[in-house]
Design a protein that fits this description.
Blueprint: E1 9-20, E2 23-31, H1 35-45, E3 54-61, E4 64-67, E5 70-71, E6 77-78, E7 81-83, E8 89-91, H2 98-115
Antiparallel strand pairs: 1-2, 2-3, 3-4, 3-7, 5-6, 7-8
């Protein structure tokens, strides 16, 4: 019996940047990643796999928050990426749900308000 995925949860990585007066980027660690995505990351990094290397990037610019995205190996776009042992961003085939996106943005708002 396969375990039902209940959604990603997020925590602050400690990495946030202020690019100019109205542009901020916050990186969040994604926890509770589905097992099939975990397996893809293990295939990438083998024994160097690290469960804390799943991330999302939340960007605030022009008065709005949004989630950063990048192309996966198959050409789809995804917001969830795995940072491999060489520091490369490997975008995974995963689309954030509306509730996951809102949770990530709420955490980023808190981070920005506390840091800047």
């Amino acid at each position: 019996m396969e375990k039902e995925h209940t959604g990603l949860t997020f925590r602050f990585t400690g990495w946030s940047d202020k690019w100019d007066t109205d542009c901020y980027t916050s990186f969040l660690v994604a926890d509770n990643v589905p097992e099939e995505i975990v397996q893809q990351a293990k295939d990438i990094d083998g024994d160097s796999y690290c469960k804390s290397c799943f991330n999302v990037e939340v960007i605030f610019e022009e008065g709005e928050f949004h989630i950063g995205s990048g192309a996966t190996d198959n050409g789809n776009f995804s917001e969830l990426f795995y940072v491999d042992e060489d520091g490369g961003w490997c975008f995974m085939d995963y689309e954030l749900s509306e509730s996951e996106e809102l949770a990530a943005i709420e955490l980023a708002k808190l981070i920005i308000s506390e840091l800047y």
